[in-house]
Amino acid sequence: MSEINPKIGVLVMSYGTPESMEDVEAYYTHIRRGHAPTPELLAELKGRYEAIVGGVFPLRENTNGQVAGLQDKLEQLAPGKYACYQGLKHAKPYIENGVEQMAADGIKQAVGIVLAPHYSTMSVGGYIKRAQEKAEELGVKMSFVKEYHMHPKLLQALTERVKDGLSGLAEQTGGMPAKVLFSAHSLPEKIRELGDPYERQLLETSAAVAKAAGATDWQFTWQSAGRTRDPWLGPDILETLPVLREEGVKAVLVAPVGFVSDHLEVLYDLDIEAKAAAKELDMTLDRIAMLNRDPLYMETLAESVTQAMAREREE
């Protein structure tokens, strides 16, 4: 049995991604709850990863970098007080592995945070449930940051990116008016029946960033819906673009505020698929730079963690 560790564990959770092309099948089998993708679907999935410049490896490095960046920021705020661990939903180290490692290191108190600013029972709620169950099993007292979608530093970082993106797009198009399309990963429509806050929180973030960036022409759209029989939230960006073109829009800046790093839904779904669709419509489409290890995002995460621990002490 390990000695009690006075540090506060920080479980940094995210969706996960394969580490190599050889891991793609196992990764999607886990997402599909043990059902392996068909050979045709597997070939399509591998094709998407191969289409991304640099292959799959930068995707995992982004998450590792964010965990390291948060550790650095917490060390600045409270030297020697916090220790970060990674827990992934669909790849190793799994969420349970992260909690197990904390317990093995003697951690007795911890806080969990997801690399996704907006709360949904189907996404962030699922991460929290898995972490909580394992923490209770191992005797780790754990609290959670459920959302941070209106943190001032997150909004500042996104606002700067929208301003920069609009400036760059204006240079490309000779000053043509541009519409800002905020986007996020779609979820099954049934979340609306549950009174889930996901959609409302995304609109709150989008409205706040648009206002701060001075972007008066904007709207929200969805992307990257799963392939299931149940209907997913829409319209998808690939359905939105033709409608905008009919309305006379010729330049679009995509701001995927539901995502915090460069990964498949950004590098393929937007940079390749959506750009190709826009080109066919004779539209110019660009997107904002992702947060990745942006100092303001690291500060958002660190302050959210320390505030959660402060609330825990008060209670």
TrEMBL record:
Residue numbers binding Fe-coproporphyrin III: Y15, R32, R48, Y49, Y127
Pathway: Porphyrin-containing compound metabolism; protoheme biosynthesis
Subcellular location: Cytoplasm
Highest taxon of source: Bacteria
Major localization listed first in the record, in broad terms: cytoplasm
EC nos: 4.99.1.9
Reaction(s) catalysed by this chain's protein: Fe-coproporphyrin III + 2 H(+) = coproporphyrin III + Fe(2+)
Record bears the keyword Magnesium: no
Known role: Involved in coproporphyrin-dependent heme b biosynthesis. Catalyzes the insertion of ferrous iron into coproporphyrin III to form Fe-coproporphyrin III.
The name this protein goes by in its record: Coproporphyrin III ferrochelatase
Species whose genome carries this gene: Paenibacillus harenae
Gene: cpfC
